[in-house]
Amino acid sequence: MEKKLIRKNDIILLGGLLFVFAVITLIVFLTRQAGAEVVVSVDGQEVAAFPLDVDTTYEIEGAGGGRNLLVIEGGQAYLSDASCPDLLCVHMGKISRAGQSIICLPNKVTVEIRGKEKSEEYDTIVG
């Protein structure tokens, strides 16, 4: 007696998973928000903010004397140089959409893209 490798239920399950993946991808793609500003934080404190549509270069003084070089050009932001040993932040690439960020852990630097609409921030939990 031969065993079937792929059964009807397997095909239905695979089709359902592909459909769910396609719907989630479509929702994420359609709800992306363009970035408006680049916000730089060092050790949790906001130190600078720049419009994303103005080309500029800014040297970030990180915690412990470290440094990062932020470049904003063509509506995208990226770190072109850093004093950290692994340079993971430099290799993270360019960001341009609201919610995207680049983080340099050794220098405690965060570069975040914020959208045009301000999001509400909550300081406390009400129970």
Summary, kept brief:
It is built from two helices and seven strands. With 127 residues, it is an alpha+beta fold.
Features:
127 residues; mini-chromosome maintenance (MCM) complex, domain 2; alpha+beta; four-stranded antiparallel beta sheet; 36% strand; three-stranded antiparallel beta sheet
Radius of gyration using CA atoms only:
21 Å
What is the CATH H-level superfamily of the domain at 35-115?
A: N-utilization substance G protein NusG, insert domain
Strand content bin: 35-45%
Describe the biggest sheet?
4 strands, antiparallel
Average residue-wise pLDDT: 87
- Which blocks of ≥5 consecutive residues have pLDDT under 50? none
How many DSSP H or I helices? 2
Question: Helix and strand succession?
Answer: HEEEEEHEE
- In CATH, what is the class of the domain at 35-115? Mainly Beta
Q: What is the CATH topology assignment of the domain at 35-115? A: mini-chromosome maintenance (MCM) complex, domain 2
Number of strands: 7
Please give the alpha-carbon distance between the first and last residues: 62 Å
Mind telling me which CATH architecture of the domain at 35-115 this is? Sandwich
Structural class: alpha+beta
Placed side by side, the strands forming the largest sheet appear as 2-1-7-6
Proportion of helical residues:
10-25%
Q: What sort of overall outline do the alpha carbons produce when their principal axes are compared? A: elongated
Structure description:
With 127 residues, the chain is an alpha+beta fold. The protein has a domain at 35-115: Sandwich (mini-chromosome maintenance (MCM) complex, domain 2), CATH 2.60.320.10. Helices cover 21% and strands 36% of the residues. It has two helices and seven strands. The chain has helices at residues 8-30, 88-91, and strands at 35-42, 45-51, 56-61, 67-73, 76-82, 101-104, 109-115. It has a four-stranded antiparallel β-sheet with strand order 2-1-7-6, with no helix packed on it. Strand 4 (67-73) and strand 5 (76-82) form a beta hairpin. The longest helix is centred in the first third of the chain and has 23 residues, at 8-30. The model has no long low-confidence stretch (mean pLDDT 87).
